[in-house]
Amino acid sequence: MSFDGFLSTVDTIFYGRISYDNWGNYQPTNDANEVEIKLWEGVHSKKKYVFSTQPKIDNNAEYINVNIIKKWKR
After folding, report:
1. Which is it for strands 12-16 and 62-64: parallel, antiparallel or unpaired?
2. Residues in Cβ contact with 19 at an 8 Å cutoff, skipping those fewer than 6 apart
3. Domain that holds residue 35
């Protein structure tokens, strides 16, 4: 399966803080080819959650810094 194929099967991406800092808002350079541009459009179209003890405000992701099992346990 191609990465594009994989992306079409998910609606959410989970990141650690460092991965998100590096890739969560990455934009291809002006000389990027169409395949790379489409790939990043696909990545950025997904809901993003970032697990971190260092939350920050980011309109493109929701930061999670609590005990998620305790918070969402029903």
Report:
1. unpaired
2. none
3. 3-72
CATH code, domain with 23: 3.40.430.10
Asked if 59 and 50 touch (Cβ cutoff 8 Å), the reply is no
pLDDT digits over 12-60, tens only?
Answer: 999 999 999 999 999 999 999 999 999 999 999 999 999 998 878 899 9
pLDDT at 19: 96
What domain count does the chain have?
1
Half-sphere exposure for 43 (CA within 13 Å, toward CB): 16
Beta strands in the chain (DSSP E): 12-16, 47-51, 62-64
